[in-house]
Give the backbone structure.
Amino acid sequence: MENWINFGIALLLVAINGFFVAAEFALVKARPSRLEQLALGGNLFAKVANWLARRLDASLSACQLGITLASLALGWVGEPAFHHLIEPVFAWMGISNPDVLHYVSLAFAFTTITALHLVVGEQAPKIFAIRKPEPMAVWCALPLAGFYYVAYPLLVALNWITSLLLRSIGVEAVDEHGTPHTEEELRNLVAQSHVHGELTRSEAQLINAVLEFDDQSAHQIMTPRTDVITLSMDAPIEDWITTIRKYRFSRYPVVEQSLEKAVGVLHIQHLVGLDLSQPLDRAALLQPPNFVPETIPIKTLLQHFKSSQSLLAFVVDEHGTVVGVVTLEDVLEELVGELEDEFDEQVRDIVPEDDQTFRVLGQTPLDDINKAMGLTLQSHDSDSLGGFVMQHLGRVAEQGDVIQIDGAKIEILRVEGPRIVSMRVRLSAPLASLDAPTSTDDNEDSAAQ
């Protein structure tokens, strides 16, 4: 009878061990925001679970203490109980030598209790808690809180001894569970959430765009100087109207001779309702010019647009030369993708000709090329493929020039003056799959062509 009592105690200890394992992993995996939401619903178990989660280190110490005590007790009670229950079975099978019978029974009992401990007391509750952390944390809350209070003096003593030991060897105890995630870890979490269906593709792309947001500068998103459409301050008003009707932008830089002599920015709504046959005070129609350095991070640029109430800025380099213009729309497109209106004509930067060959615009960013084609092109001086090719050539590119780089051959298809307009990129091996090509809009809300 005593053996059967010990056998029942052993099974109970396995269940207790499983309880503490499940509680530990549930508290680690549970989202604090979800537990707070459940607690606000008035559920007592959820309130206790939220209380334990706010004291995560102490709660996990209680779980570890419970696991250790249960495991030690199981080894003390379980093996003898299983040994004495199994010994008669082996004797019935014909094992008569007392020593052989003892060791075979002991080995079988050890194997059985170990398997039971691992499967029922460790793996099963751990996996269940990982897959359903919030429900498990809520279910375990009250018993764990009771054990936490009962064992609190012992937990304090053990934590004090641990801290003393760590300090003696020059290590400061830290709250490892409060360590923030790195940007790369956040990207991995987003990718895993997308794979498991917790985030849609568009949600994952938006979060990744936010993480990349502050890594870019105005120089990388601006409309280059060569593409900027301007209005001359001295030109007849009829020329202004012709240009506005042709390009259909909402804002235009107004200059005297060059962008370095920018007078201001014209919004076409300021022309609405005016009698254009009469002399106009053009200066009164313009917003003051707004200049930003090309190195300004786009996060800072966004704040600049919000504070200045000017949605178009002239981008200048270290020498004070205007190298392009940038708009609020350019900044927002880095987060949400291309924004097109009824006048925009979609022009794709990367157009596949087959699974190995692509027609690419010279202004296409290197990052887009690398993502779409699986390449690793890098340049400290150029952000676009055209600039990368020009740097590789070491001279002004000409139509028909061909360069060979790791993984691809690039042929110049069209140039306009010193600028590369389009190229053909042929990969050394076909892509197994191609992401949707990046598309850009030549008619952005800036004065870009």
In short: The longest strand covers residues 258-267. Confidence is low (pLDDT under 50) at residues 433-449.
